[in-house]
Automatic annotation (TrEMBL):
InterPro entries tied to this protein: AAA+_ATPase, ABC_carbohydrate_import_ATPase, ABC_transporter-like_ATP-bd, ABC_transporter-like_CS, P-loop_NTPase
A Pfam family per the record: ABC_tran
Membrane topology designation: Peripheral membrane protein
Gene Ontology CC: plasma membrane
Localization, UniProt: Cell membrane
ABC transporter domain mapped to chain residues: 11-501
Name of the molecule in the record: Sugar ABC transporter ATP-binding protein
Amino acid sequence: MATAAPGTVALELRDVSKTFGQVVALSSGSLTVTTGSIHALVGENGAGKSTMVKIIAGLYRPDGGTYALFGEAVDFRTTAEAKDAGIAVIYQEPTLFPDLSVTENIFMGRQPRGRLGRIDRKAMDTEARALFARLGVPIDPERPADGLSIADQQIIEIAKAISLDARVLIMDEPTAALSGVEVERLMTIARALRDEGRALVFISHRFDEVFSLCDTITVMRDGAYVSTDRIADVTVDDIVRRLVGRDVDDLYPKQEAEIGEVVLEISGLTRAGLFHDVDLQVRRGEIVGLAGLVGAGRSEIVQAAFGVDPYDAGTVKVNGKKVPPNDPAAAIRLGIALVPEDRRKHGLVLDSTITRNITMAIRRRLSRAGLLSSGAEVTTARDWASRLEVKTTTLDTLAGTLSGGNQQKVVLAKWLSTRPDVLIVDEPTRGIDVGTKAEVHRLLSELAGEGMAVLMISSELPEVLGMADRVVVVHEGRITAELNREDATPEAVMYAATNTQGASA
């Protein structure tokens, strides 16, 4: 598909609106994107970004406003029509078929045919390998998608979009679960696509990425257009004020807390091929950051400690009591809570209400004589939803309809309702907006101040350095450094994360 000359208006939306019943998802969305450029679209969760992207992609039809593609008015009725017109979208959450191979996922619905009309699997495999070579990632095209990390799933979605040779490419939080090396690789690819004359829309809550990658930035708030500027003409502070309508003075509100006795003690934890001889302690009132590159084994360590996954050797103790392996229910009873990395897949029941999601882990506790008290359930859910400031008109709202930030708050509420001694949070602010990030960070700091032991996994180095009292770094399943807050510099953490000379403990 031929690309237009650089600077040509590729995508233009003017005062686009969309309502769902009484809910106004988008009141006046506007966006103008030109070829040969990367255009940032930013806004808090609930600002209308996702709704506008779904209109662009043909998933929704607008109620009002205008939508033009390369100067021609369009009214897509299906996503297939949008794809045929040259639009590709990489959504925040991967949408792979787990039982199919990586290659089959990339070419789903458009498999090349050979003689006699049979699917040409060799051609598919060859192109898939070429795509991953271009991305610089060693993913086996023949392996099933099931079991892939979030990072690998995102890379496959990117490969799928690139294979479509789209003129307009929309990336919705594509780097949310990627390591620094993987992010830089993606940025290199994005710049190459821009230089080919394509138009890119980049949606991210990470301002360092936005300001290093994008040429132009559009801000949305409360379903409406706020501003568009050249990146060179604005600062991060300018954008934050426009995003939230206020100053966010402290994104990492780390308060001092009294550090007490050891609550969580992991000793010699080992699982062949994933992690080896892991020793880790978290004390009362302490936030420990578990850092490392994606794939280092951080999530696997905490999942084993919680009992979700097996391990070959080692022990896990809470308050001196041994946690039985492979028994999450026992871990919960002993005081461990785990907020998983993938909130939609492992943290929520999307077609259940906020109330049911928040009380899911404590329903037995709320029951009397085997009968669940609906009054106690509603009261508990209301109390936690209020404390975490879940934005909703009713607790009967389905969790799947909430914004990413509010979904994360519901997952946190579910586990905090168990009143744990140890809170393990895996990527607590992945894919949520700057305002909600500050709220989550404030909550973690408050919980530590109340005496909770917090173990936080994060791929965002500023988050680790801003919130942790101590940083434990993992490289290829082994702990390579343990750094006090004052010693945890970006350089020290990255040396340890890559296991190169210069790391200090």
